[in-house]
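Worked example

This section walks through a single chain of length 106. The input is the sequence exactly as stored; nothing has been trimmed or padded.
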Amino acid sequence: MSENSRKVVDYLWIETVDNGYKVGLTNEAQEELGNVSFVTLPKVGQKLSKGDSFVELEAEKSVSEFGSPLNGTIREVNRAADKDPSLLDNEDDSQAWLAIFEDVSE
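Given that input, the structure is written out below as tokens.
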């Protein structure tokens, strides 16, 4: 992906950042789910392969599990959203980020 590009995979956006790839919820996912009431984020240092269980969200319309869109290691998670899942309902979906991956491979 080129610098500052964004791509969408299965309701998740992926954006190139200085230290890896930031992944978050698209507005489309937010609309499908409704208000998020609980989130289970991956652990920092966790290695994931594409399709592995990445994040689970409980919302007013459903409980959804999202598979990892990347092969890599979790460098950082959105701790603010972990404490207050309603942050994932932000209209500005760049605020609805979930985690940053590093050591990403194809």
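What to look for: The chain has a mean pLDDT of 93.
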